[in-house]
Design a protein that fits this description.
150 residues, OB fold (Dihydrolipoamide Acetyltransferase, E2P), 2 helices, 4-stranded antiparallel sheet, single chain
Length: 150
Amino acid sequence: MSGDKFDVDADAIRELASLLDETGLTEIELENGDRKLRVARGTVAVQAPAPVQASSPSAAPAESASAANESSHPGAVNAPMVGTVFLAPEPGAPNFVKVGDTVSEGDTLLIIEAMKVMNPIRAPHGGKVTRMLVENGGPVEYGQAMMVIE
C-alpha cells in the first residue's frame, strides 16, 4: 500500500472478533470501496486492491467463465449473501423447486443459512426453472448465480 494510510478502528476489530466467537464463524470480511478488512481466527489481514493481471482466455477455467456468464443472465437468481444453501425446508423433505418447475414471483426457491439464520430466497419473477447451479448443503458466495428462471 506504498504511501497509502489505512486507518483501522481497533474497537471495530475487537467487535468483529467477538462476533466470530458468538456465531462460530471462522472469518468475517468487510469491503469499503477498494479496501478490505478480513478478521479470521488467528489472523487479521488488510488488503489493498489486487493488481490486474493479463491472461489468455485459455488460462481461465471454463467453470469460472460459465459461472460469470450465468450471474449476468437476465433470469439468474443470484445469492444476496454468503452462506450455505439448503434446497429443502428440512432434511428429507422435497426441494422447494427443481428444474422444470414453474414458479411465481415471491415463491420460496431455497434457503441460505448465514450466521445461524435461515434466510428464505424468493423468486424475483415468475417463470420456469431451467437450471440449478448450486447443490444442497453447498457453499454460496455473494452474487453467485444459484439458478436460472426463464
